[in-house]
Design goal:
alpha+beta, four-stranded antiparallel beta sheet, two-stranded antiparallel ribbon, binds zinc ion
Length: about 230
Amino acid sequence: MQVNHRHLYGLEHLGLIECLGHQLESNTAAAFLKMQQAAVSDGLDIQICSAYRDFDKQQSIWNAKASGKRVLLNKESQPVAIELLSSSHLIDMILIWSAIPGMSRHHWGTDIDIFDANQISRHDLRLISQEYQADGPCFQLSQWLDSHAHQYGFYRPYQENLSGVSPEPWHFSYFPISKDYINNYHIESIKAVIADSSILHKDVILERIDALVDEYVFRVAPIPAL
Ligand SMILES: [Zn+2]
């Protein structure tokens, strides 16, 4: 597949369409609507809380966390004080729950965060693991997706021990398209994009860039065998 390099890093994306108030890559949108429809008869209302996000949006999230304007959570989803952290440690802490701009799969339009709107409102949803575990409002959805998501082309790239990113049971990727994106992802391109950005602590990010890209972009769960 021919891939436009600028959209691998969130700089532009010409293949997006509007889907339920979000922007998605067009094949991803069609597959999502089919999956959503199929889940209705099992009592689920699958809704999207986050889809396409461009570089600038991700940069504003990153910089808000790096400057203390937005709360930083540790692995246990507890708030962390940032004042005493070194740049490198701060980067590691932000990376628990947020991607470096240019390194988010949400730039691709193929990746979505989803929840069960029959069980919890968008407003109350926190996107924490407990919500998708036994007794959580999205547990039934999570089990349904375990059995059915791959039939619609979706899978979880961020799984325990299979990804450098924390497990995100709500995050699904449309692999027929995203597999080509990851195959075209390029370390020299992302270096140039970051060097040219206003990302806070970008100098330390660039010192560590090879390891960070390996850990947070390339190290994801393998796509399911069909
Ligand atoms: Zn996500």
